[in-house]
């Protein structure tokens, strides 16, 4: 059985790759397309891919009736999916879900049974077009990008406690501007220790290898995207006594950037390397069922690996955030917080001004029906930057994410967001508007496809820093 499953999975992957390769070549700009014999080869590859896909889809996954699939899928749904359906998932975790995660049981992957663990393999292939890959406001360059994203998750199935592991590799290939091609990766190990039915200890260790987005405030404008590495340790614990719930969370992050080669030489991005530590204490008292009074305080430390950056400025700092407000936990309807308070960051170097002001954080997971989820967020925060003579960015960000099950296997989603960034100690102000709409169709529990359209506009008070960007993406996904 395992041999047949592996052969089926491999044949589908081969078929998708052939179809995607043919589509990608047909989408090349004029002058870079295929002619003559090469067109025939590309068409032949697409035909082979389609045949293999059809053969794979006509296998066991589509051979069973809907009722049989439902029966076999009982109990296979991911725990977070079940919680989201019952309106119990915190907003942060709901935001991290993908549209495919909220599909019915019959369209959830079964995984490979390893006894106390479940192995969940996945492969995604994206073909996208970006109208402005360098995020510039003049002479915009467009390109076709192919992304290959294999993923492997190992989830425990203990009655109590949990141990999970996740590994993901992402390869982005640009057709024309191949210097933009990058390889990213993520590895994560997480666990939960259940003290009681209500109290638990959580921990996770995550390694991230990625590249900085073009158009970000700290983009060095390199010949290639700036490479960075993050190592993140998260730990938290929650304990309840009656209607009072106390929680303590610790987040430690080691951030490292590689130096960036530009047309003018080398930009020393390693001066941005730093260690971050956040410690958060949260107290929540439920005074009415479903309604709580929440108080939250966070201490923050930022310690750079160099005493001074390339401009001779020391950037070590410490800060705090204090918030109080209302927490909601109304089963099957809404869950989240609305907090308001004060924030401040103090820098050791007296040449940097200390940002401070009001603090706001609101996140809600609202389920007006079993088929629709709405997640609004609002936050005002202090963000790190290494721009010359600028101490920090004051960011105000608002977003709304909507997911709707139009049919059992057709899920619609959209995200609208707005952010305003103001330099503390500098003159730059930026407003960024972004919208994404997508549709995901699940053929069965093993194969799905998504279509996504995106628009992004950045407006600034400094000439040359804004840009417009349009993206379109087609995704094919395999999961077992």
From TrEMBL:
A Pfam family assignment: BBP2_2
InterPro entries listed in its UniProt record: BBP2_2
Domain of life: Bacteria
Region annotation Disordered: where it falls in the sequence: 65-88
Protein's name according to its UniProt entry: Outer membrane beta-barrel protein
Source organism (scientific name): Magnetospirillum gryphiswaldense
Taxonomic lineage from the root: Bacteria, Pseudomonadati, Pseudomonadota, Alphaproteobacteria, Rhodospirillales
